[in-house]
Design brief:
single chain, 140 residues, mainly alpha, 2 domains, 5 helices, 43% helix, globular
Length: 140
């Protein structure tokens, strides 16, 4: 009989405790390694799939990259559900972990209390986290 995914070691790679203790720069690093696992977090242009990119961060310190082939700017969230986000990336990672670790999902009201955000924000984050959770469960 096979073991439930949440009981395996693969499900315990990133815990909520680890994410909540991270600084924003560390959270971006974790997000980049999850976003580009085949290059171990090295950015790949979402427009032309070129892996030769250099850093050109925003004035507020948010990560930004420029592709050397097509000369377009992009962020680690470009082309994902988290593009044009307003929350910190650490909050999004925490929401994904909270939702994926729950057996039957997480209510938006409970998620809004956990992340200290409005209900509407939690509803949208919950929907995005559910989509990522489905991808995560199907990839194993």
């Amino acid at each position: 009989m096979s073991q439930h995914f949440l009981l395996t070691a693969a499900a315990r790679t990133v815990s909520l405790k680890q994410i909540l203790r991270m600084e924003e720069a560390e959270a971006w690093t974790v997000f980049c390694t999850i976003r580009w696992p085949e290059t171990d977090g090295v950015p790949v242009c979402p427009h032309c799939d070129c892996s030769t990119c250099w850093r050109c961060p925003r004035p507020n310190g948010a990560p930004r990259f420029r592709c050397s082939a097509c000369r377009r700017d992009f962020s680690p969230t470009s082309g994902t559900l988290f593009a044009f986000h307003k929350l910190e990336i650490r909050d999004y990672l925490a929401a994904v972990v909270i939702f994926c670790d729950e057996v039957k999902g997480k209510a938006a009201l409970a998620l809004s209390r956990d992340l200290d955000v409005q209900y509407k924000t939690a509803f949208v984050v919950r929907r995005e986290s559910r989509l990522i959770g489905v991808v995560r469960m199907n990839s194993t």
